[in-house]
Amino acid sequence: MVQHEHPDSARVPTGSPVRTCIGCRERALAVDLLRVVVSESGPQGHVLAPDPRRRLPGRGAWLHPVEACLSLAERRRAFGRALRVSGSVDVSEVDHWVRAGHPPRAVPLEQNRHKHS
């Protein structure tokens, strides 16, 4: 019997949420990706916003917080498909977030969950 070696991105702890980056299309732990949502829609299009705390309402798209993945997602027009919106999308807030070098999440995931006593 032949055993296949899985790439590092496929090895994740059991029970940890896994998402796909809309830029590079690689699967990664959700804590390593930045969630992006539509913050407002208007006649000029849709404005996207980073959601590092994963609390904003609406459908989210997931992205590695690096310029290469953001550029790929823009070039592939992946935001519109992932967020199910048509028309133009303004990624300037997300671009600013990524260029500033912020981590993908502002608070540890453990603090982001409700604790039941």
From TrEMBL:
SUPFAM superfamilies documented for this protein: YlxR-like (SSF64376)
InterPro entries, per database record: YlxR, YlxR-like_sf, YlxR_dom
Record-annotated YlxR domain positions: 19-88
Name of the protein described by the UniProt record: YlxR family protein
Organism: Rhodococcus opacus (Nocardia opaca)
